[in-house]
Recover the amino acids of this structure.
């Protein structure tokens, strides 16, 4: 299953390295998700979402964050396990200053 959604992308991370003899590549986008009011949630929070490969992040990492984007998700299934990954992030517009998170001053 593939679908697209308009999301706020707060940031991205990339990691490629070897941990305990195993090569690992981790590419993550941090996007705003709505909290479920039926379970006591109000508003939104930032959640990590796995990207299919490093090219997804390489194409957008030069943009100033955060921004609004059209994000394409794909559900993948292997050995009875389903995972949702991001296959494309298309920046649409920057967030207004009033939408930016507050910066805390160093003590």
């Amino acid at each position: 299953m593939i679908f697209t959604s308009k999301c706020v992308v707060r940031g991205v991370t990339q990691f490629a390295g070897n941990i305990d003899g195993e090569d690992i590549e981790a590419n993550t986008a941090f996007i705003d998700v709505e909290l479920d009011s039926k379970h006591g949630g109000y508003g939104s929070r930032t959640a990590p979402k796995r990207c299919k490969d490093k090219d997804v992040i390489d194409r957008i990492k030069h943009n100033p964050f955060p921004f609004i984007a059209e994000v394409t998700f794909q559900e993948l299934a292997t050995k009875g396990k389903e995972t949702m990954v991001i296959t494309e992030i298309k920046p649409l517009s920057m967030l207004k200053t009033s939408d930016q998170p507050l910066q805390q001053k160093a003590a």
Summary: The longest helix spans residues 54-58. The radius of gyration is 16 Å.
